[in-house]
Amino acid sequence: MQKFKILFIGLGRMGFPMAGHLSKKSNIDLYVLNRTKSKEVDWLKKFRGSSYRAYNNLKFDFIITCLKDDESLKKMLKFISQNENYKKNTILIDHSTISLDLVYLISNLFKKKLSFLDSPVTGGEEGAINGKLSVMIGGNLSSFQKSKKIISTYSKNCTYMGKLGSGQLAKFTNQILICGILYSISEALVFGKKNKINLSRLYDAIKDGAAGSWQFSNRFPTIIKNKFNFGFSTELMAKDLKYILKQSTENKINLKLTREVYLKYKKLSNSKFKKSDTSSLIKTF
Q: Which among 171, 239, 264, 283 is annotated as catalytic?
């Protein structure tokens, strides 16, 4: 059995359990790196692996990143580039949601040095914990085929979207859909409350019908309980929508609803709801 040497960078809410799934595979020699060292210590107490800090001269078969935003990824990749932790056949798999500008910058930075796949994920913290994420991948087809078994360790759906950048464009589309659904859920809940509808019964009546969705099934019950601690935060959604609106401006598309929702998430990300999950959008209504 072929054994792979893998470096996983970014042990946040998503990366922590994703790296955990990789650690359970006998054919993977796993190393982890996080900006906050205490997170590494916590991860190493729970899972099998090694800290990259003690072995920073290694060359890896795969480098997997799962970071907050463009700036976080730039800093980590600069660090890896300086230490030359890659071979010519190394594959860099980035699960962050980043701007298209950074996708192309990374491609140029590592041109002819390694292969890069832009591979954003969706499914939230629950999906990461349960190994049921959906991954949208752009880049070289051969590199995708070599990486699929690795990515499938923590995902249920791994889709090749096409050329580099198409992974991010698919994730952008996903976020447009999510923000629209959460907007309509918020409006529907406000309408239901105003008209004194029993919200628990409303949930039972709607969840399996045409208006049902993952967001409705999973977040409507938590919203009516005033609970907003379920992973993907308002500040991350604001960041994603900012990237989307930049791209839509370049495309000369007016994403009116997305822009309105972005302004609401921007407001939340500067409030006490900064770390609350995206269903806290209701707080702006």
A: 171
Q: Which helix (H) or strand (E) holds 32?
A: strand 28-33
Verify that 203 and 71 share a domain, yes or no. no
Question: In terms of domains, do 146 and 201 share one?
Answer: no
What is the arithmetic mean of pLDDT over 21-33? 97
Encoded amino acid at 162, one letter: G
What are the structure tokens assigned to 192, written together? 């239901």
Helix (H, G, I), strand (E, B) or coil at 235: helix
C-alpha separations of 170 from 42, 75, 241, 285 in Å: 33, 25, 13, 29
We report the CATH number of the domain holding residue 23 as 3.40.50.720
- Shared domain check, 24 and 119: yes
Strand partners, 51: 32
Number of independent structural domains in the chain:
2
Task: Respond yes or no: is residue 5 known to be catalytic.
Answer: no
- Position 67 confidence tier, pLDDT thresholds 50, 70, 90: very high
Which string of DSSP letters, residue by residue, matches 35-76? SSHHHHHHHHHHSS-EEGGG-TT--EEEEEE--SSHHHHHHH
Q: Which of 164, 192, 225 is the last residue of a domain?
A: 164
Q: Which long-range contacts (CB under 8 A, 24 or more apart) does 215-218 make?
A: 215/178, 215/181, 215/182, 215/185, 215/279, 216/181, 216/185
pLDDT on residue 83: 85
pLDDT for position 231: 81
pLDDT digits (tens, 9 = 90+) for 204-257: 999 999 999 999 999 999 999 999 998 899 999 999 999 999 999 999 999 999
Same domain, yes or no: 228 and 271:
yes
